[in-house]
Amino acid sequence: LVPVIYARDFEKVKTDGKFTLNGFIKGLYGDNLMPGFGLEVNVNDASFSYPDLPENIKNISLNANVQNKTGVMDDLSIDIARFDFTIAGNPVITSLYLKNPVSDPNVKASFSGKINLAGLADVIPLEPEESLKGVVDFGIKFAGKVSDIEESHLSQVDASGFLALSDIDYQSSTILLPLEIHNARFDFSPVFLQLSDFEIKMGNSLIQLDGRIDNYLAYYLNNEYLKGSLNLNAGILNVNEILSAMPSDTTAEADTSDSAIQIPELPDRVEFVFNAKADKIVYENYNLTNSTANIVYKDKLIRFESLKAEMLAGNLEMKGVFDARDVNAAMIDMDFRMNTIDIAQAYSSISMIQMVAPVAEKTRGSMSTGFKLKGVLDKELNPKYETLFGGGFLQTSDLTIESVKVMDQLATLLGNNDYKRLVTDGINFAFEIVNGKVFQKPFTIKYGGTNTTFGGYVGFDKQINYDFIFQIPYEKLGLSQAVKNLSEAASKKGIKLNPGSNLNVNAKLTGALISPKIELDYK
Question: Which of 127, 130, 119 is nearest to 9 (CA)?
């Protein structure tokens, strides 16, 4: 009869109080027959305690009556008029009435109390490395029939309750991240669930939450819409710290089957709004400040109404849609904006920039960009690059690029070291994304002291194909063998190449993005 949680060292438990039990069993018992029965239990002024602990559970009172005179389970009635006790100085009061449990359960119940968790250690033994503090306050009332809930006659149901937590602090050797719940309150009724004043600290992260869910019973019983909202406010949100503290099964073999990496089936008949603000977010190698989010979910569509943050010495914003109605081909339609982002920091932090613009590693300056992107995701939520379409612009501040291998090669080919270094007062060009390639529309800049026009594309397969036109004065070509050959060929055609002449020299940059080759064409 004793719950296992209280059975630890049970032979040492001391008890006191008065206990009476009266009952009967009368009738036939067989495969399809149950006898009638009744049971009445009364406990008065009872207590129990562990001899090694200073406190006990006392003032235990129980008045319970269970009746079923026919043996038919639907004729069962349970009446617990009171079940009260005091634990560590905190009273708990309970009552329950139940009849017709099979055909249409009719229930009336209440449960209320306030428990100081620090006192539990004086009543129930904890492990030596465990500690528990805080206060739990609760009250629950319910009166009604299950049929009224199923038929949405919620006005016939009286149900309400709350759970309030304050200053909860649980420490154990099994917990990797210290956890404190400063405040929390949960209220419910047949028509709503509400969370308020929830403040939790996990390691260095301090998070405040509040939210509400409406129509949850009608959603479950009558296929109606579930509506809800959640608001998050954080001072510091260290995602890395939280993820590292989550349990993992290191003994299980990794499941590499398709079922293990499928995009989850998102619920329908749900409308949900998530709003968030965070002063600082630490995630992987990103540090975001003054972050805000407004995300709306409805029928397997996630709309990013606005995601904003300051990072990489600038700021970014994203809007768009994630469409998971087809779990085998989820779609994205996104609009990005990045303003005055430090290029070198962006290269070290953003994998896509490393993929399409490795030259950024050798670049000093800042950039602003905006682009739209549509495409399909695979089962692991990675983009299928060949499906990506979009376009946008790129603007930079004063820009310096140097110590790049391909620029050194170009300087050698042209016989002029001015081409080892690019310094501009800023660039501004447009690009398009088609079939997984980023096409740059041609534009002209000053490079090596001369006008240079270039355009082409970079593929997400890390291949590059760019064309350059250098308008180079003859005297800047140096004395490379290629120039000598050019002069001789021109003379044979009756063309004089003299100082003061400008030449259009074409170049082509192709190959793998990390080690492209550049070739000149003087024709």
Answer: 127
